[in-house]
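Quick one: structure tokens for this chain, please?
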Amino acid sequence: MYKNKKIISIIPARGGSKRLPKKNILDLAGKPVIAYSIEQSLNSDLVDRTIVSTEDNEIAEISRKYGAEFIDRPENLSTDKATTLSVLKHVIETLKNQKYNPDVVILLQPTSPLRKTEQIDESIKKLIDNDANAVISVIELHVGYEWLLGIKDERLHFIFEKERKNTRYQDQEKAYELNGAIYTYKTEIIEESRIYNFHENCIALPMDKITSMQIDDNTDFKIIESIIKNVISKDKEEVEK
């Protein structure tokens, strides 16, 4: 069933980054950050093509080195204001001009290096098995949505004041947030959409805290590097013994 589909992953990797310069190719425990996402995609038996979208020659060269294809991103899609949706559409259009029409598109942000190939495959299976428009990865919040707080004029307030009930934590409806790790779509949903996230006929892919971690700044980078060196590497050594 899954092998009959043309499935691609798209890894968007712009050269510029203000908070953490060149974060997509920084050395993370011995490999460039982007290499983790490339390898996760290439290790999937369901993903046919792994494609990096970039305007940066250094990123393109590193992507090729680790086995990915790359599509040159035009200048107008390489600014801070360019949307991820427009980048996805550009890659799809480029492939269709090459007579390749993907059925399923997976967005893999390079800033989520701890996701697992098994989670990518699970998202594909969920999409196809349920005939969903999208499967999007999330992480559970530690409180229900009615207990979420905002700050206005330095003072705390409940964001959903009218929804708040005096209920125990274990009785609350669980709340989730996007973790940015995996977005899997039917291709036509991307082509037809004018917004980035799609909730109609969209299935959740819950992920744990570690695989949900993202590199947004230098603190995140150091924490994730420590996990790779001191947790993941040691676990791998134990399995190989």
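The chain is about 30% helix and 25% strand.
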